[in-house]
Amino acid sequence: MEKKNIDWGNIGFGYIPTEARFVANYKDGAWEEGGLTDEATITMTECAGVLQYAQTCFEGLKAYTTEDGKVVCFRPDLNAARMADSCRRLEMPVFPEEKFIDAVDQVVKANLAYVPPFGSGATLYIRPFMFGSNAVIGVKPADEYQFRIFVTPVGPYFKGGAKPITIRVSDFDRAAPHGTGHIKAGLNYAMSLHAIVDAHKNGFDENMYLDPRTRTKVEETGGANFIFITKDNKLVTPKSNSILPSITRRSIMYVAEHYLNMEVEHREVYFDEVKDFAECGLCGTAAVISPVGKIVDHGKEICFPSGMEEMGPVTRKLYDTLTGIQMGHLEAPEGWIRVIA
Ligand code: PLP
Ligand code: COI
Predict the structure, then answer these.
(1) Which of 30, 165, 219, 233 lies 20 to 30 Å from 316, alpha-carbon distance?
(2) Residues with catalytic function
C-alpha cells in the first residue's frame, strides 16, 4: 500500500482530513450497525443537543507503525471503557465497547495510507466522539445521537517536540468538585479555552490547574496529567477525582514499577512540594511525555534541575520505555497492543 505524500517529519498536531471515517446513529433506543463513509461534513438541526447544551464527549488514541511494519494501536479497550463512563455521566447512550474497538480497526484499516511510517516521529491520531443530534430546547438529554471516529496524522503536540515547556499556575479552574473533570466531555475543553489563549498570550505553553476546592493541590493541565520524579527517583502522580484518568499515566505507572523497578506513588500532590521534585512532565496520548522545565506561579518561578534543554534522565527512560512498547521494539504487557494490520 502506497503512503500519502506527506512530510511526516514536519507535521504538527493539526487536522488533515483522510478518506474514511466511521459513523453510527442512535435512534428509537438502539444503535444502528454503522459503517465507513467518505463524508466528513455533518448536517444537523440548528437545535441539536450538542449545539445548544454541549452534549458531547470524545476520546483520543493513536495508531503506530512498528519497526517490523505492522500497524498497531495502544490499549483501545481503555478508551472504549472511558468513553462509556463519559456517556453515562452525560446521559448519553453507551456505544458498545467491543463495537468501539471494531470501529477503530475499520477506520485505521481504511486509512493505512495515512499511518505515518516507523521512525518518522508522526503517528495516526484516532478521534472517536459522540454528540446529541436531535432538536432539544428544554434542558434535557437528546433522544438521538451520532457516534463517529475520524483519524488524522499528527506530529508533536507541543512545538519543539521533546524540548521542555514552561507552564503557569492558572487562576481559572477547569473542573468543579463533583463536576465532570474525570470524564472526557467537550465542555471541559470549552472551559479551558480562555485560559489557554491567555496563557499563550503571556508566553506560557500550558496551564497547571489546581484543585478547585482548596487551590493547594496539583490537578492536571488542559490536555494531560502530570508526572513528577523525586530526587530519589520515585514516580509521583497526582490523584484527584476531578482529573481525567489518563491511560498514558496509568501505563507509565506500570512501566515505572515493572520495567524500571521504580517506586510509584499515586497520591494527592500539594503545590508546595512541587519545588522539591527533580523532574516534571505532562503525559497523555497527544502529549506522549512532554517535559516541563519551568512552572511559574504569579511571578514566582520553579525551575527543575533537569533544565530547559533536555528531558530529565528519568523522564527520558520512561519515555523510551513507553514509546518502545507502543512502537513494538519492547515487549508489551499482555493486552496492551492491538495489531490492526
Ligand atoms: N487529561 C486531559 C484533560 C486530557 O484531555 C487527556 C487526553 O486525553 C489526558 C489527561 C491524557 O489522557 P490519555 O493518556 O488517556 O490520553
Ligand atoms: C489526547 O491526548 O488524546 C487529548 O484528547 C488531549 C487533547 C488536548 C488533544
Answers:
(1) 219
(2) 184
Within 13 Å, how many C-alpha atoms sit on residue 188's CB side? 25
Average pLDDT value for residue range 147-176: 94
**Complete domains list, the chain, with CATH:** 8-154 (3.30.470.10), 165-326 (3.20.10.10)
| Ligand closest to CA 224 | 1
Ligand 1 midpoint to CA 222 (Å): 8
The verdict on pTM exceeding 0.85 is yes
pLDDT digits (tens, 9 = 90+) for 258-311: 999 999 999 999 999 999 999 999 999 999 999 999 999 999 999 999 999 999
Question: Taking the CA atoms of the chain, what radius of gyration do you get in angstroms?
Answer: 20
**The dihedral formed by the CA atoms of 196, 201, 202 and 204, expressed in degrees to the nearest 10:** 50
In DSSP terms, which residues pair with 130 in a beta bridge? 57, 147
Q: Separation of 224 CA from ligand 2 center, angstroms?
A: 7
295 lines ligand 1 (CB under 6 A): no
